[in-house]
C-alpha cells in the first residue's frame, strides 16, 4: 500500500471530492504519499473520467456519491482540509444539457457547502474553479480583476459555484479559497473523449499516430498547466493567507494550438499529421479565442508558480500512458 509519508499533511484528514477523476486522483496520490488520511467522494458520473483504477493501490476510503447527498455530511465531519474538485467540465456538453451542468456545478455545491457549514465549519476548503469564467479575454494576460463574462453554460455554472463558496466564506466565516485553473494536462486524464478539452485529444492522437485536426487556423493561444503544478497550487492554497480569496492558476508561457500539436507530435515521436479544418458551429459559438492567465497574485501571496514546461510535461505524460494503455480505450 502507498502512504506513510512524513510531509506537511502527515496525520491530517483530507477529503477530496471528484477524487476518482483526473486532477482529484493526482491530488489523492500526493496526499497519501505525504502521510494524510484521505477520504474520496466521487459520483462516477458517466463520461466524466472518474475511475476507481485512478487510485488503485492506495489506502483511501472511497464513497461513491453525489457531493450533495446527506450521507456526505458524515464524510466531511472532522476533516482538516476539503479539496472540492467535483463538477462537470465539458463546455460543449454544458450547451446540450444545461440543466445537468448547473446541477453538477452549482446545486450540488450549495448542498455540499450546507453540509460543511452544519457539521464542520472550521474545515479548510480549497475549491476548483476555471478560467472559463472570464469568457473572451479583453486583455492578455488575464488577471483576477478582469470581468467575468462566460460564453457557455459551464462557465456560468462554475462562476455561480465559485460565488457560492465565497458567500459561505464571508457570511459564515468559513476558510475557503477558490482556484481558477487554466488548461490542465498530465497523467490520469480521460483520453477517450473529444468533449473534455483539446489537450487530451492531442495526447491521444499523438500516442496513436492519428491525424490531429485544428479548428480554424490554429493560431489561438493557450497556457497549458501540468497537473503536478495544479496539485502544488492546491496544497499551497491551504495556507490561511488565501482564505476568502480567488486566484488564477496558470503559466507565464502560452503557445498557439498549432505549436502545442507540433510539440505533442515531436515529443511523442509520432507519425501524426496536423491538419486544419473549419470550425464546427457548436464549438465556434463558445470559443474564447486566445487566453493566458496572469498568476502573479498567487505567486505573491502564496508563493506558488508553475514549474513544469510543456515539453517536459508532455514527455512524462506520454511515458505514463504508454505504461497504462487502458486510458486510451476506457470509456
Give the topology, please.
Blueprint lengths: L12 E5 L4 H12 L3 E6 L18 E4 L7 H5 L4 E4 L6 H6 L1 H22 L4 E7 L22 H20 L3 E6 L1 E3 L12 H11 L3 E4 L5 E2 L1 E3 H10 L9 E4 L5 E2 H12 L5 E4 L3 H4 L11 H7 L7 H14 L8
Parallel strand pairs: 1-2, 1-4, 2-3, 4-5, 5-6, 6-11, 7-10, 8-13
Antiparallel strand pairs: 9-12
Can you describe what's shown?
- With 331 residues, this protein is α/β, with parallel strands linked by helices.
- The model has no long low-confidence stretch (mean pLDDT 94).
- The protein has a domain at 13-188 and 225-251 and 292-308: NAD(P)-binding Rossmann-like Domain (Rossmann fold, 3-Layer(aba) Sandwich).
- The longest helix is centred in the N-terminal third of the chain and has 22 residues, at 98-119.
- The chain has a seven-stranded parallel beta sheet with strand order 3-2-1-4-5-6-11, sandwiched between helices.
- It is globular and about 55 Å long.
- It has helices at 22-33, 72-76, 91-96, 98-119, 153-172, 198-208, 227-236, 257-268, 281-284, 296-302, 310-323, and strands spanning 13-17, 37-42, 61-64, 81-84, 124-130, 176-181, 183-185, 212-215, 221-222, 224-226, 246-249, 255-256, 274-277.
- How helical, in percent, are the residues? 25-40%
SSE class:
alpha/beta
CATH architectural category of the domain at 13-188 and 225-251 and 292-308: 3-Layer(aba) Sandwich
Percentage of residues in DSSP E strands: 15-25%
Radius of gyration: 19 Å
How widely separated are the two ends?
Answer: 27 Å
What is the CATH topology classification name of the domain at 13-188 and 225-251 and 292-308? Answer: Rossmann fold
Query: What is the oligomeric state here?
Result: single chain
CATH homologous superfamily descriptor of the domain at 13-188 and 225-251 and 292-308: NAD(P)-binding Rossmann-like Domain
Indicate the low-confidence ranges by residue numbers.
none
Shape: globular
Counted by DSSP, the helix tally is: 11
Number of strands: 13
Q: Summarize the helix and strand pattern as letters.
A: EHEEHEHHEHEEHEEEHEEHEHHH
